[in-house]
Amino acid sequence: MSAALLPKPQMRGLLARRMKFHLLGAFLVSMGSAVLYKFGVAEPRKQAYADFYRNYDPMKDFEAMKAAGVLESTQCKC
């Protein structure tokens, strides 16, 4: 009598049904993490490089390194 009250378990297609669910979840998580990385890390990094090189003077930096003695191949006219 108690066997008639319990629903029958699904035996066919269980793996396929669960696989669809987990593949969809994995896809959504990976796309979400890619978007978060792009806007949380890559874009601020790109902006920081653009800000740095906007006002960067390589000759001024070269002269500062030459005066500090970092570059041994140049003569220091101090």
UniProtKB/TrEMBL annotation:
UniProt topology in membrane: Single-pass membrane protein
Keyword rRNA processing: no
GO cellular component, as recorded: mitochondrial inner membrane; respiratory chain complex IV
Domain of life: Eukaryota
Principal place of residence: mitochondrion
Keywords: Membrane, Mitochondrion, Mitochondrion inner membrane, Transmembrane, Transmembrane helix
Associated pathway: Energy metabolism; oxidative phosphorylation
GO biological process, one term: mitochondrial electron transport, cytochrome c to oxygen
Subcellular location: Mitochondrion inner membrane
Function in brief: Component of the cytochrome c oxidase, the last enzyme in the mitochondrial electron transport chain which drives oxidative phosphorylation. The respiratory chain contains 3 multisubunit complexes succinate dehydrogenase (complex II, CII), ubiquinol-cytochrome c oxidoreductase (cytochrome b-c1 complex, complex III, CIII) and cytochrome c oxidase (complex IV, CIV), that cooperate to transfer electrons derived from NADH and succinate to molecular oxygen, creating an electrochemical gradient over the inner membrane that drives transmembrane transport and the ATP synthase.
PANTHER family reported in the protein's UniProt record: CYTOCHROME C OXIDASE SUBUNIT 6C (PTHR48416:SF1)
Family under the similarity heading: Belongs to the cytochrome c oxidase subunit 6c family.
Subunit comment: Component of the cytochrome c oxidase (complex IV, CIV), a multisubunit enzyme composed of 14 subunits. The complex is composed of a catalytic core of 3 subunits MT-CO1, MT-CO2 and MT-CO3, encoded in the mitochondrial DNA, and 11 supernumerary subunits COX4I, COX5A, COX5B, COX6A, COX6B, COX6C, COX7A, COX7B, COX7C, COX8 and NDUFA4, which are encoded in the nuclear genome.
Protein name per its UniProtKB record: Cytochrome c oxidase subunit 6C
